[in-house]
Amino acid sequence: xxxxxxxxxxxxxxxxxxxxxxxxxxxxxxxxxxxxxxxxxxxxxxxxxxxxxxxxxxxxxxxxxxxxxxxxxxxxxxxxxxxxxxxxxxxxxxxxxxxxxxxxxxxxxxxxxxxxxxxxxxxxxxxxxxxxxxxxxxxxxxxxxxxxxxxxxxxxxxx
Length: 159
Hints:
By secondary structure, the protein is mostly beta strands. It has strands at residues 16-19, 28-29, 31-32, 35-36, 39-40, 43-44, 51-52, 56-66, 74-82, 92-100, 116-123, 125-126, 129-130, 133-141, 147-155.
């Protein structure tokens, strides 16, 4: 879904982090095809030490529905990295955004968020460690929260 005045990103179906197939109403990981979406950023695992690629990228999040009608809903979308292929251990936060009802956001004087495009810039290197696998973790709060979105990863374009 395209929104006006957006930066152009190259879409690759292999970099899909959420397919917008169902609304997210509970904490968990974003899904594609009903399963946790995990992108393997690759590297050279056949050498010692393992060589992984540093990536500067953007998680493009196209929100198609967001419930804020109860006045207390919030949604944290966190790009997480791990060297565990299933994101089952040692996850780190690479970047994130909190959206929802403005008055319930952790920032002062928050504005209500609406459908549209949100961009989460991130790098898969933290404190000298490079993480091979990424996904989006969703943390919801409030009265019957519900958010729908499609998300994909794109390399940060040159200005």
